[in-house]
Design a protein that fits this description.
By secondary structure, the protein is an alpha/beta fold. Helices cover about 30% and strands about 25% of the residues. Strand 3 (about 90-95), helix 4 (about 120-125) and strand 4 form a beta-alpha-beta unit. The radius of gyration is 21 Å and the shape is globular. The structure holds 2-acetamido-2-deoxy-beta-D-glucopyranose (3 copies). This is AB hydrolase-1 domain-containing protein.
């Protein structure tokens, strides 16, 4: 679209086209998917009521690993080839994982102010291919039981299998293979990236952790944070009516500002 409007502008002003003017801008992207099979032990959160997460969380015994998850999952994502060819980077894939309350769109800023907030567009200008996935339970990927299945041991295993598929070229619809992979995580997915590289140190060549700290301050904001979520099936039934109430959505902009940005400070 941007390309077309630029051309239109040039035509309107009668500018003679130059090589620069007709050069393609922006990355070239396509949807890709992975089918992965995992066998892993999750925490036993039996007793956590998706209709009353806050009320039942405190009364749970200290969760222990013990519930086996043995399943196939479909993981969706968006692969982008960069607009700039840089031979030293073109075979290095940035593997982008979005954070708890987002999807792959976190990495493009959904076009707000053009590409000002787009990691994908910036990487493209630097010559890096990117793959932004929807993590299990988010976006266009599968939405299994949010309490018993969508936990970090299963998430870690799913990402491990996705990365193995990228390395081997099997079980995915990516157009090509890569010699290096950089894991880039945001927030919760920085924590998962940390778990992944501890368990599987050779899955990626390097790791970038954003929105994350080595210490976790459990503040009043953390507790208030839980109250800014409500079952998505109730808050947006048209989109999420078929999901278990354990899938939640942020409902309160002021609350989100306070929890994530420490408003009013
Ligand atoms: C999970 O916990 C519940 C209740 O806390 C218990 O009854 C059940 O046996 C546990 N299941 C496993 C597989 O440990
Ligand atoms: C790619 O996937 C997204 C998310 O599911 C969807 O909204 C979009 O329509 C898909 N695009 C194409 C070209 O299939
Ligand atoms: C949390 O709130 C309580 C009561 O409102 C207050 O006494 C306490 O200092 C607060 N703690 C933090 C870490 O802000």
């Amino acid at each position: 679209m941007r390309f077309i409007s630029k051309l239109t502008t040039l035509v309107a002003f009668g500018t003679v086209s130059t090589a620069t003017a007709i050069q393609k801008r922006g990355p070239t992207c396509s949807n890709v998917s992975f089918n992965v099979n995992i066998n892993v032990l999750n925490f036993n959160l039996t007793g956590l009521d998706p209709n009353n997460l806050l009320g039942t969380f405190g009364s749970l015994p200290n969760p222990t690993l013990g519930v086996a998850v043995s399943s196939n999952f479909h993981i969706a994502g968006r692969f982008c080839e960069p607009e700039v060819v840089n031979p030293s980077r073109q075979n290095t894939l940035q593997f982008l994982v979005h954070g708890a309350t987002y999807t792959r769109d976190y990495w493009t800023g959904k076009g707000f102010n053009g590409d000002q907030y787009s990691w994908v567009d910036y990487a493209s200008k630097q010559g890096y291919p990117t793959l932004a996935i929807d993590r299990l339970g988010n976006g266009a990927s599968d939405h299994p039981d949010p309490i018993l299945v969508v936990q970090y041991p299963a998430q870690t295993e799913v990402l491990h299998k996705v990365l193995q598929a990228i390395r081997s070229g099997a079980g995915n619809s990516l157009p090509r293979q890569f010699s290096k992979i950089i894991y880039v995580g945001h927030s919760y997915d920085s924590i998962i990236g940390n778990a992944l590289t501890s368990k599987y140190p050779t899955d990626v060549d390097s790791i970038v952790l954003t929105g994350c700290s080595s210490v976790f301050y459990y503040t009043n904001q953390t507790i208030a944070g839980l109250a800014v979520f409500a079952p998505a099936s109730i808050t947006d039934p048209a989109r999420f009516g078929n999901l278990s109430p354990g899938y939640v959505q942020t409902i309160n902009l002021d609350g989100v500002r306070e929890v994530f940005y420490r408003a009013p400070n």
